[in-house]
Amino acid sequence: MNAIQIPKVTSHDGLTLPTIGFGTYKLKGNAGADAIARAIGNGYSLLDSAFNYENEGTIGQGIRAAGRERSGITVTSKLPGRHHDYEEALATIEESVFRTGLGHIDLYLIHWPNPKVDKYVEAWKALIAAKERGIIRAIGVSNFLPEHIDRLESETGVLPAVNQIELHPYFPQVEAVDFHRSRGIITQAWSPIGRGNEVLTEPVVAELAAKYGVDAAGIVLAWHVARRVVALPKAGSDEHQISNLNAATIALKNDEVDAITALGKPDGRNKGQDPATYEEF
Fold first, then answer.
1. Which residues face 9 on adjacent strands?
2. Domain boundaries, the chain
3. Is-annotated flag, keyword Ribonucleoprotein (predicted)?
4. Which pLDDT tens digit goes with each residue over 172-191?
5. 15-194+227-235: which CATH architecture?
6. Known catalytic membership, residue 212
7. Of these residues, 44, 53, 108, 120, which one is catalytic?
């Protein structure tokens, strides 16, 4: 196992997560379970999945194959938009737990708010109930805007522990990160290195990679760690898995962090998925 000490962040309600986790999107079947088992062996303790990824069973198999204590692994999954009705949400959460075969899921998120449908508060109430039953241990959201989060708290009295959002140097989400920090909400970054964009070829990233003797992806991940954001990169090979974790040892200076943040664009989203209007089911 990789002995790197990954910095951690803690939410308002005591949830503690490492600042580098492991994304599992598109990891399925035996090959996916093998990649997950190796990731655990290489030192990852946070695994990110979703009902819509159709790989919750693969997550469970990967953990069993790794032979690690279940208590040392944080498994995340997410509720799809088509199941925001309260009873459907509860059944979907139960199904997620059944798929993993792990007895419980550590962190469960609402995948998207789907504001046009406007049932995300109902879905949130289902997550609260599932947590009270003990089948999930912590609850949060994904792709929620501050106004969505404020509404959850005002109508239920329960604030999410996590908000997982698109976040990378072209879309640094400065205001969202500041909002989360002010409320004790952990920010997680999906697509943390960008997906199909040119961020890894930016001169400032390349210069810092040369300075610190790492690849460009390592610099971008170090930028996340410096901002106390939980990055969720995906990597199949042992080499990439380990190099991503090693990014946690790079201590970027404040001006270097600022230089990367300055790469942000007015709307740097990869696919224009604005949570104010985007719907995913």
1. 17
2. 15-194+227-235
3. no
4. 999 999 999 999 999 999 99
5. Alpha-Beta Barrel (3.20)
6. no
7. 53
